[in-house]
Amino acid sequence: MRTRRSLAKSWFRRHAPRAAVLAVLFSGVLAVPSVARAATPGEECDRVAAYSSTAAAKAVTFDALDADSAIRACSAAITSDPNQPRYRFLLSRALLKAERYAEAKDEAERAVKGGALTAHILLAFIHEDGLGVDRNLAAARRHYRAAAEIDLTSAQIEYARMLGEGEGGAKDEAEAARWLTRAAEAGSPVAATRLARILSSGTGVARDDAAALAWARRAAERGDAQAQLLLGSFYEDG
């Protein structure tokens, strides 16, 4: 007399091909293959031209920026979403890399007008270096100031430089020190090194060797070569 187990084995041997087909069919129903979603035009613009890192895209340095790819991607993003000023800022940066200065200036101005205030720094570069326009240090200084006020540390450093050297307006070493302090406190080793030099010489501020040493040490620990040299000179001079 055949047992239930032997009957089950017999059925499976006879119907194995059908069972295999059913398994495949049901596995297909239960595990639908995922289809990768295509990036939106805006996401592609950010991917190839992002100025600062976000959860969705890593920052692309100016040296690494592929101007042609960024111009295509960000132009498409603007067509898709013309009310997003960030795409105009990223496009203006790519145009600047491509040395299409008049277009870069136009897009940067439109970006600023739309609320992408980071574009002020591009306008500062354009006016300071006379890229496609007459050199205008006063305009460059105004744009650096506008970008500095939104806590863009690179702009704070450049604005401090112009203040300290009296470029594009009155010389104001105390104000320069204040902006360098703001950038250094935000974590910029370049600003910390420059601030250390100012504090050690008493340029525009009261001389403070202890604070100068502390800022130089902080910048050196973050790998700033100039700070490491400055720190060495501090120790050598005692």
Layout: helices, strands, pairs:
Blueprint: H1 4-30, H2 41-49, H3 67-80, H4 85-97, H5 101-114, H6 120-129, H7 137-148, H8 153-165, H9 173-185, H10 189-201, H11 209-221, H12 225-237
Helix pairs in contact: 2-3, 2-4, 3-4, 4-5, 5-6, 6-7, 7-8, 8-9, 9-10, 10-11, 11-12
Please, could you describe this protein's structure?
The longest helix has 27 residues, at 4-30. This protein has 238 residues and is mostly helical. The protein contains twelve helices and no strands. Residues 11-30 have low confidence and may be disordered.
Residues in β-strands, percent: under 5%
Count of helical regions: 12
Low-confidence stretches: 11-30
Radius of gyration: 30 Å
Order of helices and strands: HHHHHHHHHHHH
What is the mean pLDDT? 87
Helix/strand-derived category reads: mainly alpha
Largest sheet: none
Shape by Cα distribution: globular
Number of strands: 0
Q: Could you estimate the helical fraction of the residues in percent?
A: 55-70%
First-to-last CA distance: 103 Å
